[in-house]
Amino acid sequence: MPSASPTPSPFIYWGQSAQNIFIKIALKDVTEQPDVDLSNDHISFEGRGVGAHGDCVYKFSIKPYRHISPEKSRLRVTGSEVLLDIPKRDTTARDESWPRLTKDVAKHAWIRPDFDKMDISDDEEEMQREKKRLEKEYIDKLTSEMAETQDKAIEDIKKNYLFSYSLFHVIAYSFILVKVIIGIFTTEDYNAFEDVGTVLIIAQLFSFLEVVHPILGLVKSSFVSPLIQTCGRNFILLVVIWNEPRIHGSSFVSYLVLFWSLADVIRHPFYMLTSMGLSLNFLTWLRYTMWIPLYPLGTGCEWMVVWLSIPLYESSGKFSLELPNTYNFSISITTYMYMHLLIIPVGLTKMMLHMAALRRKKLGSGSRTRSTTSKDKKHN
Description:
By secondary structure, the protein is of the alpha+beta class. It is 51% helix and 16% strand.
């Protein structure tokens, strides 16, 4: 596991007079009394507030340039900052201007001079330029950190959405798969559509989002393959099967639902992991191997369902307009269904070639399964 991030230091601004050191800690909304520890040669702070890294705990610990008088120091917490007023201790240094706040000469990016609290005799114009430079540097750094925080928040929302979307399909298709397996092996003349049709329709309607995800940039893949698969499935389910009750009891419908569910029970757990930047190698192998038998079996069932439905739609005249009529033209759904019988093998070929290319890319020609967890940055 990655180690915890170190506690950030707040931006502090320091100034001085002949007798005192002034420290302004840039933390807003400090609701609880911060922990401030002062000694002759030590200043430490820890408290929760809103700073450059957002709402979290901040702390710092420094050795002052010279000794201080902690017993006479004052602490004040306002809504926008924490103020420390610390007297200098060394009598020889009381009238001496400190060149820096800390004893060590190393520069700390989070320690800045507070020119409004600085007794200095240097050239004012030069100091004003330095003040503006530091203020601009601080604003630029704060703007950059806010942009990074915003980008991370958007990325987290995207990951959580994709994870939830795939989790919904895992639950839905697991339910469908279990019901259909039990029904096929325990019930004579099993009617899968009447048993799980409602859940299947809801899941398939949500599957249109898989076409939208690549268009919006949520996943790094083409929308063409999910468009072909989604439109093909939904034509079979929402047009051919749903509107013709006489086909509901066909065994081809039951096995079609079985093969669809098997494919998605494998596919969506893989997507759940990749949405979080992870992969399980055995699951990756399943994702890019099980389509080899499942796609032809499912497509064969689709072809048979359409073929068996054509005479049923011819006899019912549903979704057809015969001549003569007011519009003086005819249309028949069975004409498209005959065309769809030709489209199905073309779509299958395209999907098989697409998946074969992905399999070579993900697994190689002689891949072996492993069960270790690794990063996977692309959601196919």
